[in-house]
Design goal:
Radius of gyration: 28 Å
Helix content: 40-55%
Oligomer: single chain
Number of strands: 3
Number of helices: 4
Distance between the termini: 85 Å
Largest sheet: 3 strands, antiparallel
Length: about 140
């Protein structure tokens, strides 16, 4: 007894379950109704937005999601000295004997000629030429 009242048993009933399982796909079970795919993903995002505390936060999240829907992901690749060394090893013993560490990494050592990615792409092409597999 608490405050001279009998205790009530705790009973919890769930309204449902939601989960995202990948890019624009989800699974849901709401009121014993199961569905999946894009509709479940949209439903999950709607519930998520409703649970956010402030309007400003909701708008920021909604704007980010909208931009994500409209534009593809930006994918960049940085070519490092380790990548050039790996290409040299793939070329095998029949390639020229120039060591991969002797390639110019212009932007990293103070002599900047163009952007770093341009310089690294030029270094990759040079490495490919020395390995015998020219991208031309």
């Amino acid at each position: 007894m608490v405050l001279n009242r009998p205790l009530k048993p705790f009973i919890f009933t769930t309204l449902g379950q939601l989960a995202t399982i990948g890019r624009r796909k989800g699974v849901a079970m709401v009121f014993e109704i199961k569905f999946s795919g894009f509709a479940a993903w949209v439903f999950w995002r709607t519930v998520y937005l409703m649970k956010l505390p402030r309007l400003a936060k909701k708008l920021r999240v909604m704007m980010g999601w909208t931009l994500d829907l409209l534009f593809a992901r930006d994918i960049e690749q940085m070519i490092t000295l380790r990548d050039v060394e790996a290409l040299g090893e793939l070329a095998g013993p029949h390639s020229r004997t120039r060591d991969a560490t002797s390639f110019n990494c212009g932007g990293f050592y103070g002599r900047s000629r163009g952007s770093r990615s341009t310089q690294m792409n030029a270094n990759l092409i040079t490495a490919l030429k020395y390995s015998g597999s020219t991208p031309d």
